[in-house]
What we know:
4-stranded antiparallel β-sheet
Amino acid sequence: QANLVESGGGSVQAGGSLRVSCVHRWNYDCLGWVRQVAGKEREGVAAIATVGGDQYYADSVKGRFAISHDKNENTVYLQMDNLKPEDTAMYYCAADHFRCFARNWQTQFEVWGQGTQVTVSS
Length: 122
């Protein structure tokens, strides 16, 4: 059984909204979302500390995306609003047993989900 299982995603027109979810089997100190376009490097999108709730965002999504965590449901969410075509990517749920690093959160994750596709059309 996978540690991180994503759901949600899909296709939407520019300006629309989507929410992706990820159920995690184990407890982690830092949960996040990372996206990747084929042939390009991964980009950390958002992260959240499961203790304290500090949140971190890539500059490209600030003000449009919101990450949240439901401890009772062991689920981390990424609400994506005002989507743009450049948001099109495979979105991966990611986790780390260590606390979120304020400066390097985008590259600290060590556990990954299988990914869910988000496609935004213009």
